[in-house]
């Protein structure tokens, strides 16, 4: 067997998941994690999509479990939060055990808990639910589902997903994102969660969007096709979008990104959602240039060639960055 064959031959799923667990256990203890360790992890992740998927799935479960554990009420004379490393060891054990039992279908089932789905940077995944509904995950997305006791509940932890829902009035389909909840009324919609912004775009049917604060105060609105609701920490606004623009925003389903009269700075931000090699716009003059283009979502080189050949900008490659300037 050649060296190339040895490099591309996939490792057994259980071995990959065990390696992912080992990296995450080591990384959670920052006192023992070095720059060399970070480089070792990046090298391992770059070897295959299977490595990235295993690591991201375990990391998403770890983050969710630690967050839920931290919310538990304190008990007298005891710490309410389990030490991070101990908690992660338990999660990793469950994760690897599930894979050993044959859970190799792209989902993670926690005992008594939800199913977790995750995509790596640049990845996509289609989930077909038993009720006929479909959920399509975009890049760098983590989502959990809970259909216990006849309920249909989904939480978008991060990223973006397209929902095509089979309506059932007796069992409403809800999507929770932070302190907002979308309830299906016979619907196709897109939900995207960024660091400080949530957007819900209604494509077909209707949906109820409710914002529930910790105080219990709630604000609800009904969305119709073409509506885009944007929620930030302090406000919720609704605007209308033409069908062509909505379809362009879903171009990621075809593996491309469509831009119309978009500044290079905004194009770079969108591109960086899909690629680990990041685009850096070095100055405002270059960043203010406007383009109309359809580009492959995971081909940073195509973006760089466009900037150089059509806009006359300077392109410099630096490790994991592509720097563009005038």
Which key terms come to mind for this protein?
9 helices; 326 residues; Phage tail protein beta-alpha-beta fold; three-stranded mixed sheet; Jelly Rolls; single chain
Overview of this protein structure:
The chain is of the alpha+beta class and 326 residues long. It folds into 3 domains: 3-104, no CATH class; 115-242, Jelly Rolls (Sandwich), CATH 2.60.120; 255-325, Phage tail protein beta-alpha-beta fold. Helices cover 32% and strands 34% of the residues. The protein has 9 helices and 17 strands. It has helices at residues 3-8, 13-28, 35-47, 49-70, 84-100, 243-249, 264-272, 284-287, 300-309; strands at 108-109, 115-118, 125-128, 134-137, 142-146, 152-164, 173-177, 180-193, 198-212, 218-223, 227-231, 236-240, 256-263, 278-281, 290-296, 314-318, 321-325. Strands 1, 2, 3, 4, 5, 6, 7, 8, 9, 10, 11 and 12 form a 12-stranded mixed sheet that branches. Strands 14-17-16 form a 3-stranded mixed sheet. A hairpin with a 5-residue loop joins β9 (198-212) and β10. α4 packs across α5. The radius of gyration is 22 Å and the shape is globular. The chain starts with a helix and ends with a strand. Mean pLDDT is 77; it is low at 1-10, 66-82 and 94-113.
């Amino acid at each position: 067997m050649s060296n190339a064959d040895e490099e591309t031959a996939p490792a057994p799923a259980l071995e990959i998941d065990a390696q992912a667990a080992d990296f995450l256990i080591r990384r959670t203890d920052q006192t023992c994690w070095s720059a060399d360790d970070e480089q070792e992890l990046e090298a391992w992740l770059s070897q295959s999509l299977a490595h990235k998927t295993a690591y991201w799935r375990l990391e998403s479960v770890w983050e969710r479990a630690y967050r839920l554990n931290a919310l538990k009420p304190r008990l007298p004379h005891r710490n309410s939060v389990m030490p991070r490393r101990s908690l992660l060891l338990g999660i990793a054990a469950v994760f690897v055990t599930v894979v050993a039992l044959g859970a190799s279908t792209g989902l993670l089932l926690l005992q008594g808990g939800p199913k977790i789905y995750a995509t790596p940077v640049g990845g996509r995944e289609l989930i077909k639910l038993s009720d006929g509904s479909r959920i399509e995950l975009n890049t760098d997305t983590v989502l959990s589902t809970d259909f216990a006791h006849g309920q249909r509940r989904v939480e978008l932890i991060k990223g973006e997903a397209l929902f095509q829902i089979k309506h059932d009035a007796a069992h409403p389909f809800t999507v929770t994102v932070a302190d907002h909840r979308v309830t299906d009324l016979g619907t196709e919609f897109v939900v995207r969660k960024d660091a400080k912004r949530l957007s819900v775009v209604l494509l077909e049917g209707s949906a109820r969007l409710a914002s529930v604060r910790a105080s219990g105060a709630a604000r609800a609105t009904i969305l119709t096709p073409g509506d885009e609701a944007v929620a930030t920490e302090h406000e919720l606004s609704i605007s209308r979008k033409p069908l062509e623009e909505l379809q362009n925003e879903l171009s990621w389903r075809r593996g491309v990104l469509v831009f119309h009269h978009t500044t290079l700075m905004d194009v770079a931000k969108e591109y960086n959602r899909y690629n680990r090699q990041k685009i850096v716009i070095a100055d405002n003059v270059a960043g203010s240039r406007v383009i109309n283009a359809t580009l492959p979502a995971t081909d940073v080189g195509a973006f760089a060639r466009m900037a150089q050949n059509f806009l006359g900008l300077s392109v410099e490659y630096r490790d994991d960055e592509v720097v563009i300037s005038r």
